[in-house]
């Protein structure tokens, strides 16, 4: 059921982005210039991760450096908080409920490349530092996605995977950001 919902959401967002892109004003990077954006993220756990987390919220500042009018390097950090589901642990003698908790600080580098004047594809990779339950754990993070931008707004969707300590989790991220040149 979750896979069907995720696929429908991805198709609907892609269609929306393509529809808007047909009537959009030109957008491009300025070579050698910096751009800063601050985003709010809705994080939808997928796969096994959806068994332990309901959803997540994030805030993600991003710095971009234009390599050309069509390509930029990105550096993203911020904070992700996931809202856990109740879990039941049974060790054979005792059974009790607990909540799995995950708060991450992502630190990622990547790129954005425009395929039309307002629609881009992008990818990022980096490390997520776990800060809950005493912290100390880190996870490799990798994502790929697409988005639509205007002069100040950036609407993006991505699939992100993070792995560490034998666990691999995935999510669909929906990002709305406000940006400006520096």
TrEMBL record:
Keyword line: Signal
Residues making up the signal peptide according to the UniProt record: 1-26
Protein name listed in UniProt: Outer membrane protein beta-barrel domain-containing protein
